C-alpha cells in the first residue's frame, strides 16, 4: 500500500505534495509542484480526473474515484479544505488490499473530522456507521448524552424528534435526495442549518444506507433576512416618497397649465407664481429628506 497526499488548485495544479516514493507513480528527485496532477496518470484517465476534480469543487463534498492503471489499482479521495484548494489522497492499493481498506477508512475519517460541517451515515437499520467529531459533539450538546458509532441513530431522541425525522430518513432510504433548511435553538440561542441526506448505493445499485451533512448557515440566513428587511423598507420608502412627491408636482403642473390657458390679471399671475414657488420649496424639502434617509441607511 502506497499513500500520497496532494494539495491541488482549482484546475488541478499540484501546490504541495507528500509523495510515497515506494509507489512507482513517483520518482525520487523529481519536483512535481506546479504540474497538473492528471499528468501523473495515463492520458486515458485525464478526462475522468478533470471531471472528478470539477465535482469536488462544485459540490464541496468528499469525492472518491477508483481506476486501474496498468497492473496497479488506484483510489483517489479529495475534498475542498479552503476556497480554491483541495486535499487529494492518492492510494495505490494493489497489494495488501485489506490493510489498505482499513487505512483508507482512517484517512477518510481524518478528512471528514476536519470538516466543520456535521457528517454522518447510517445503514438501513438506522445504525450509525460513520460520524465526524462535529456531528457527535452537536448530538451531545442537544441532550447532554453521548452517541457512538454502532448506536441506533435515534438513541437518546425523544418521541417528537423521532416522529419528525423517521419519515425523512425513510424517504432517503427509498432513493430520494433530501435538502431542507430549519431554525434550531441551542440553550436559547437560535441558529439556522441546511441539511442534505442522500442514499448510498453499493456496486449492485442497491441502497445500503444514507449519508447526511448538516451545515450551519446562520450567518448566511441573517444576511438574507437583513436584505429582505432592507428591501421591504426600501419599497415602503419608495411608496411613501412617490406619494409625497405627487402633491407638489401636481400643484406645479396645475398652476403652470392655468398660466398658459387662462386670462389672468397681474395680481392673479403673481399669486400663481407664488404658489409655484411654494410647491417648488415643498418639493425641494422632500428631495433633501430623501437624500438624508438614503445617507443614513448606508452607514
Q: Please, could you describe this protein's structure?
A:
There is one protein chain. The mean pLDDT is 83. The chain has six helices and ten strands. Strands 2-1-5-4-3 form a five-stranded antiparallel β-sheet, with helices on both faces. It is α+β, with helices and mostly antiparallel strands. It has three domains: 1-104, PAS domain (Beta-Lactamase); 116-216, PAS domain (Beta-Lactamase), CATH 3.30.450.20; 222-297, Helix Hairpins. Helix 5 packs antiparallel against helix 6. A hairpin with a 5-residue loop joins strand 9 (189-201) and strand 10. 44% of the residues lie in helices and 27% in strands. The chain starts with a strand and ends with a helix.
Kindly give the count of domains. Answer: 3
Helix-strand makeup class: alpha+beta
The residue-averaged pLDDT reads: 83
CATH first level of the largest domain: Alpha Beta
Oligomer: single chain
- What general outline do the C-alpha atoms trace? elongated
The strands making up the biggest β-sheet line up spatially as: 2-1-5-4-3
CA radius of gyration = 32 Å
Tally of contiguous helical segments: 6
Fraction in beta strands: 25-35%
* CATH level-4 homologous superfamily of the largest domain: PAS domain
Helix/strand layout:
Elements: E1 2-9, E2 14-18, H1 46-59, E3 63-69, E4 72-82, E5 85-92, H2 97-113, E6 118-123, E7 128-131, H3 133-143, H4 159-173, E8 178-186, E9 189-201, E10 207-216, H5 218-261, H6 266-297
Antiparallel strand pairs: 1-2, 1-5, 3-4, 4-5, 6-7, 6-10, 8-9, 9-10
Helix pairs in contact: 5-6
